[in-house]
Design a protein that fits this description.
- With about 70 residues, this protein is largely without helices or strands.
- The chain is built from one helix and two strands.
- It starts with a strand and ends in a 22-residue tail after the last helix.
- About 10% of the residues lie in helices and about 10% in strands.
Length: about 70
Amino acid sequence: MSVIVYTANPRPTPLSKHDTGYIVPHTGDPDGSIPLEWYSGTSKASLHDFLSRDIDLLLISIPLTKATEHLLG
């Protein structure tokens, strides 16, 4: 299984991929090394580019706001 990520803001450096929030010890991916590819953007075009990848399973984890309402349909 390969993991690819889509974020609103670019994460171009290894340091920018680090999770700076709370992490239960010995869990998760604190250094951001699991994803093979990182995509970013806030436009429909950038989202459609990401969704055009060969994705078998899509997990969406975003707050529900006016900006994210109807994001996928």
